Amino acid sequence: MRFQTTLDALWNQLKDTCGKLNELHANKLKLYFNEDRKKQFEYEFNKAYEIIKSQYMSQDTTDLDRHKQAAIFILSILKSGVLSQESEDGFISLGLYAALLDVVLSYLYEELCKELRRVGIKRPPSFELPIALACPTSYFVVLCRLLYYEDPSRTFPIEYPMSYNILDWSDRFFLLEYICILKNGHDPIALKEEKHLT
How far apart are CA 85 and CA 93, in angstroms? Predict the structure, then answer.
């Protein structure tokens, strides 16, 4: 598999994150990490990767960018049933989505830092998420809720169901990086020009 090292690292980080969340919230949260689903996860990842690359990218695209890989990682974990969670009846639990997002946002932050370092820019202090202006809910929780409602392994008795879209999530991740670059006083366009010069 082309990205086996990255996938293995994300897989292990997700496993560790689930364990840490279970310890931290021992009385309220129980996440299950189903290691026996790894082959199914890899199958789902490769399948989605090839579909996006062949149907939505230009013919000269050799590899998908990190934003699309992150979005495919999330979908593949959800579709293959790697994560499951106990929750009280009638209570919407976002723990598994929080674990997934934490891992993906950490990956994107580290990859962004590599890009910035390559062009001589110091590491930003954090991967800052936008602040919701219309409500007190954190943007991280907003993203968790979106994943909950877009989870392909769930069905909802609602008139207008939502569905997970790899390209939409990829765009969200790109915009979060863009915001991070701007908030740290850099011009994303200059970074792109610098990247093409090197």
Answer: 8
Q: Which residue's entry shows tokens 């293995």?
A: 8
What is the CB neighbour count within 10 angstroms for residue 139? 13
- The pLDDT value recorded for residue 197 is 39
Rounded to whole angstroms, the Cα distance separating 3 from 59 reads: 20
Pairwise CA distance, residues 182 & 177, whole Å:
9
Classify the phi-psi angles of 90: left when phi > 0, otherwise alpha if psi is within -120 to 50, otherwise beta: left
When computed from its CA atoms, the radius of gyration of the chain, rounded to whole angstroms, is 18
- Cβ-proximal residues to 8 (8 Å cutoff; 6+ apart), any chain: none
pLDDT over 90, % of the chain: 55
Q: How many domains are there within the chain? A: 1
77: containing domain: 4-197
